[in-house]
Write a structure and sequence with these properties.
single chain; alpha/beta; TIM Barrel; seven-stranded parallel β-sheet; two-stranded antiparallel sheet; 32% helix; binds iron/sulfur cluster
Length: 276
C-alpha cells in the first residue's frame, strides 16, 4: 500500500542521538485504504491499477505515526476512499490524541450515521466532501457512479448531526474540481452547501494526466475568457448570498495545473478566491 507522506511542510525536530537533532515533518499524508466505491474520470485510480487492494491496519498506522514525533497535521487520504478503511475512527482518535489536526477528503457515500458519530467522537478536525456536480447526470459523468443524491444526503445528515450535538468540529467543506464539464454548476453547488450548513466551498484545480476527463482541454485555469469570468462572478455572488466562504486556487497561470500536483495541496490557502 502506498503511504504518501508529504515532505513539503516545515519540519520539527526530534532527538537523533546524543547531542543531535533530526528534523521531522510537521505534516504527513497517510493513505488508510486504496479501495474506493467510485470510478472518477479525473482519478488515476480509475485508469491505473498498480497495487492490490488493501487497508492500512491500525497497528501499521501507529508505527508510521511513531516515526513523526511532534507531527501537527495528519491528512488521512491518498488514492482511495478513507471512509472504507476499517480502522479509520481509531486512526483519527490516535492522531488526535497526539495533538495533531486530523482531516481527510471523502466522497461521503459511506458516511452513515454510526460512522459520523464515531468520527466526531474521535476528534476529527476537518471533513472535506468532494462534490463536482449539482445534478445526478453530471455527477455520474464525472464520478462514474450514480451517487449524487446519496452523497448530498449523507453530507446534509452529517451537518445535521453536528448541529444536534452542538459540535464545533469537524469543520465541513465541499471540494469542487473545476472543469469545463461542470463549472456552470458551481453556483448551485454553493447554494446547496449553504443550505445544508457547509461553511466553505473550495474551487479545486484539475490535475490532468491525459486520461478520461483529466485532460488539458477541461482546465478552466489560465486564460479562459469572458464566459468563465462571468461565471466566477456568479459564484462569488452565490457564495455571498449563501453565507459560504469560497476559496480556491484563483485565476493563476495554466502551468499551476501541472501533472503530479496533489488536489488540495495548497488548501487551506491564505488566499480567498481571487479573480485575476
Ligand atoms: S473517490 Fe477519490 S479515490 Fe475514488 S475514484 Fe474518485 S477521486 Fe479516485
Amino acid at each position: 500500500m502506498q503511504k504518501d507522506i508529504g515532505s513539503h511542510a516545515p519540519c520539527a525536530t526530534s532527538p537523533a542521538g546524543p547531542g543531535q537533532l533530526k528534523p521531522t515533518p510537521k505534516e504527513v499524508y497517510i493513505e488508510p485504504t486504496n479501495r474506493c466505491n467510485e470510478l472518477c474520470l479525473t482519478c488515476p485510480r480509475t485508469f491505473f491499477q498498480r497495487e492490490p487492494e488493501a487497508d492500512l491496519t491500525y497497528e501499521a498506522f501507529v508505527r508510521i505515526l511513531d516515526q513523526f514525533p511532534g507531527v501537527e497535521r495528519v491528512v488521512l487520504h491518498g488514492v482511495g476512499e478513507p471512509l472504507l478503511a476499517h480502522d479509520l475512527p481509531a486512526m483519527v482518535a490516535e492522531a488526535n490524541r497526539r495533538g495533531a489536526r486530523v482531516l481527510f477528503n471523502t466522497n461521503a457515500l459511506a458516511l452513515n450515521r454510526r460512522l459520523a458519530g464515531q468520527l466526531v467522537d474521535a476528534g476529527l478536525d476537518e471533513l472535506r466532501v468532494s462534490m463536482d456536480a449539482a445534478d445526478r447526470e453530471t455527477y455520474r459523468a464525472i464520478r462514474g457512479v450514480d451517487g449524487y443524491a446519496k452523497a448530498m444526503r449523507r453530507t446534509e445528515d452529517f451537518c445535521a448531526h453536528l448541529g444536534e450535538r452542538g459540535a464545533l468540529r469537524p469543520r465541513v467543506s465541499m471540494f469542487f474540481m473545476a472543469m469545463r464539464e461542470n463549472l456552470a454548476q458551481l453556483p448551485t453547488v454553493i447554494e446547496a452547501a449553504g443550505a445544508m450548513g457547509v461553511g466553505t466551498v473550495v474551487l479545486q484545480r484539475l490535475v490532468y494526466f491525459d486520461k478520461g476527463l483529466a485532460v488539458a482541454g477541461q482546465s478552466v485555469m489560465g486564460e479562459v475568457g469572458a464566459e468563465v469570468d462571468r461565471l466566477l462572478e456568479r459564484c462569488e455572488q452565490a457564495a455571498l448570498s449563501a453565507g459560504v466562504e469560497l476559496v480556491g486556487t484563483g485565476r493563476r497561470p495554466a502551468e499551476r495545473d501541472e501533472p503530479g500536483r496533489r488536489p488540495g495541496d495548497d488548501y487551506p490557502p491564505d488566499d480567498k478566491y481571487r479573480r485575476g
